[in-house]
Every structure is written in structure tokens, then in C-alpha cells.
Amino acid sequence: MNPKDLENLYELPVYPRRDLVLVRGKGARLYDDQGREYIDCGSNVGVSNIGHGREEVAKAIYEQYLTLGNCYGMFYNPVRALLAEKLISLSPARLKRVFFCNSGAEAVEGALKFARASKGKGEIIAAMRGFHGKTFGALAATWGAEYQEPFAPMMPGLKHVPYNNFQKLNEAINDATAAVILELVQGEGGVRVGDKGYFEEVRDLCDKKGILLILDEVQTGFGRTGTLFACEQFVEPELLCVAKSLAGGIPMGAVLCSDAIKVPVKSHTSTFGGNPLACRAALATLEVIVRDGLPERARSLGGYFLKELQAIKSDRIREVRGLGLMLGIELKEKAGPYVQTLAEKGVIVLLAGATVIRLLPPLVITREEIDKALSALKEVLA
Ligand SMILES: Cc1ncc(COP(=O)(O)O)c(C=O)c1O
To answer: From the CA of 309, how far away is ligand 1's center (Å)?
Structure first.
């Protein structure tokens, strides 16, 4: 049987599948089982910021697996130590410690728990259209009946307010509020960039009321928006959730924490969290991101991509928006059919809600590759 039939037969059908069998990737190119080449404008939903098939990461994990692949957090390990130091040295000044885990949802779970434990309070405010993952805690913070309803009841204590609306957030806060969790650019929610002024007001309010600010940078982290962390362009949080591209495609998440975060020993741990294999991959990935100036690359190429997209004259387009190489084309109609047509033209893109085409190319994408993607997008949308 071919891979499609086997997967359809043996896996729980939870993914909205595309009719593509991907077998290989290099840089910003992907290849299917028929040998067809695609320009990747999805990065496996924001994972492959340094591009596919990186020898630096392959070499690092090969060597590390032969040295020591796993090492539970009860034991010290030099590779984990190096990564912790590196991440803290690269992150905003307020963030002093890291908790390692294995995914974005797990980073959010950790942050929600750390916020409750540190404040001794249970309420957390999230935003409408926000996306934070699908495990129970993260799911309660994620917006959307389609995700929540099949799994009701939700974890209590979560409230949703309109995104980018300070007044509504202010009104929702009370004495039981422990934290606010937000994305700086809502990814799944339609590539919506929050206003700097909004985040500054939220930061001020949190400071005044002693509330923790959790920023979810699972999608915006590691150069995607033009700085290593998007929060460098906005405000600093007490808790910063990262994952996706942290370890170059090897599963890993992390919560970066300020001194305000205090959690009892043993209360939150993870068998695979901070395993040396993922840590080595992350060290190699961060080296590439910093050495090759990928955040700056995302800023300049993203600016070019955005400008060219905004110049497309099409009655089908409502708005083009984004930050760095995180771009959204909002259509006046459903975007799904265009995803298929673009793949037929050799460009892989993502959706963000029903009407938004989301572009998250690897940050190593070249100007020529962007131009190729642009000409397919123009053909399809104009
Ligand atoms: C902002 C944000 N937070 C959390 C998650 C969940 O990450 P994961 O799928 O690794 O659990 C995602 C995934 O898309 C995300 O975009």
C-alpha cells in the first residue's frame, strides 16, 4: 500500500490532510514522492526557520546520540547547561531561568502552571482568536469552539477578551487574576499583528496590579518576525513560551522565566524535557540563526515579500499583513481551494482560519525563491 492509504488506514484521522506525500527537504525546498519540487512557504508550520536538511544539526545529533542521548533532569548535563546559559543570554533581560519541555503546548502548560503557582491565584486571561495548543491547559487558553467543544468541560479559570483591545482586557481583570497570556502576532488566528501601544498598556497594567504577562512565542520565536524574539519589538514578559524552530526540527519547547516565577521542586517535570539530543540540536540551530543573521534576513526579505504582496491587484484580496517572514493574505472568500492550486504550481502555503493564506517560509529562503512564490501567488490571486 502507498503511504497515503497506510496512514489513512492506521492513524487516527485528526489532521485535515493534503494530497501530498513529502519525502525530502533542503533549504526552502520540499520534494514529494514523485520527485516534484516545491518552494516551502510553510516551514512545517513555523518549525524549519533554518531550512530543511541542515548538516550542522544532523552532525550535532549524530554525535550527541553516540555520546549520551537522554539524561533525566535529576542529573546535571553539560549540554543542557550550555543551552540554558545560551538561551538566557540571548533572551530579554528580565528572563533569568528556563524550563525545558518538548512542544509548544507543553511550554504553554508549563507557563500556566508556573503563573498559578507563583501568584497563588487561578484566573488567566487569554485573547479571542488566540492559539496556544491543544492539551487541556493550553486548550482552555486557545480560542474556538471547534477545538474546545468535543473535549468539554474545559479547565476552569480561563477568560477570553477581544485581542488588541486594552479596555476589554482591563475590564476582565480582578483580584483573582494571576496572568494574561497573549501572542504578539496571532498566527493560527489569522496573522494579526498586535499594536505596540496595546502591549505597552498591558505591560503597565500587569506591573501595577502584580499580574504576570505570558507571551506565547511558539510561532513568532527564533527570528521569524525580524528579531530573535518578537517581544524585542514589543514588551518583555515574565514568562516566554517557545518551541517549534528552537531545535531546528527536533521536538523541543521551553519556558523562559523571570525572577517572579517560583515553583516547588518536583511539582512540574518532564522525562524528555531538556534531553541532550534536543539540547545539542538547539545549540546548533541557535548558532546558525545568530551566525547567519537570520532575524535580519527575515526583516529585510519579509519587508520585500510584504510590499510585493500588497502590490498585487486583486478583487479577491481583503488585506495583506504581517511582520518579518510571518505573512497573511486575507481573502474575501475561502482560502482553502487556493492552497491546493498553489501546491499544483509548486508552492506550499498554510491556512490561518478560513480566509487567510499564511506564509511562514524558512528564513533561509532566497529572493529568487520568494519571486517564484510571488509569481505563483499573483497568477492564482490576480
Ligand atoms: C502560538 C502557538 N502556541 C502554541 C502552539 C502549540 O504548539 P505545539 O503544536 O508544538 O503543541 C502553536 C502551534 O501552532 C502556536 O502557534
So the answer is: 26
